[in-house]
Amino acid sequence: MTIYRGTFVDCPDDPFAGGALRTLTEGAIVVRDGVIVARGPWDVTVADFPDEPRVELTGGLVVPGFVDTHVHYPQLRVIGALGRPLLEWLDKRALPEEMRLADDDYAAEIALEFVGSLVRAGTTSALVFGSHFPGAVDQLFAAAEASGLRIASGLVVSDGVLPEPLLTTAERSLADALGLAERWHGRGRLRYAVTPRFSLSCSDALLAACAETRAAVPGSLFTSHVNENVAEIRQVEAQFGTDYVGTYDRHGLLDQRSVLAHNVHPTDAELAVLASRGSAVAHCPCSNSALGSGMFPLRRHVEAGVRFALGTDVGAGVSFSLLREGLQAAFMQLLMGAEGLRLNAAPLLWLATKAGASALGLSDAGDLSVGQQFDAVWLSPVEGTTLDIALRNAADEGDAVSKVFALGGSSDVRRVWVGGGEVWNRRH
Ligand SMILES: [Zn+2]
Asked: Which part of the chain is the Amidohydrolase-related domain (predicted)?
């Protein structure tokens, strides 16, 4: 058992439905076997556990581990290719790099860099777009297992549009995916995610094979892209004769374990389908800005009852930090005027933690309640940095959380735990 002492802030309930920040200043959280068994004011709580080891997390804030609901493992090294819209960016930057992962040694190197980047950003759970190459997906799962993070990922499949080395067939995709799922799904904190790249690069036969894979792997997730870019949407509609959400829905791929990235340009009918299926959307505001994809209709998602959370969408996104995604989301919503929703500390923290855990089907993560896994991040900036000054002068914990989103990043992540085990320690 371990008793952690610090200022704990989380947001367990949906702030779009009345939830608020919960703060525990000068508090104690008691963890046994990775699970939070007690929490309360330090003086009172520590009296109940007088002989247990104590960990001081003085200064800064302790928040739930961040959840990244959409991030591409093979794209780490193409972050920062600014100034191109989606289809040109894929062609010139992302896809040439993704083809390099055909080499297992190269993939192993990227996999280590990738999980290292997640953990340094305070991300404790992620739904990761894998690679088109099964060997590269093995490398990712191996690195993820060693890191201690909660990772869902899978083989990315396409059978058209993309360069030939990235293509598969319905039959081969099924065999490759089932092999990977057998090796990794349900092993420790790892889960398999069925992952067609996007409808544009998939035939109906391949999407049907995705449905078959899912049926064969109970508990697997489903993820892909939807409604990201206007030119892309027109092509999908012409190719399938249905709206973009419908291309997945008609194969039965949308349910409560499905996460579709972007959804920047949905119709009301598509939002209604997503709501009725209980599927979630990964909102990736930095990527939407970097590729000029558009302004996310967050208010329409709330009003339609569609679940959503945040994703970094590395490498179209520009960092692994969910703090930065929160800030960009807040900026974009304000710029949308009456069509946007104001995002302050509570919805930002909720979107970066509990909403993401919910989207990924992790009911015991995302907040710091008794009974939950101790997945946590100690945000403690280096002394003298602007965030350090800001936090020492914050009006209250809500103001402190706002300041963390405004100024924080990976360098402010001091220590990270998953299931009570420390997975990162900056050590200064
Ligand atoms: Zn993406």
From this structure: 61-421
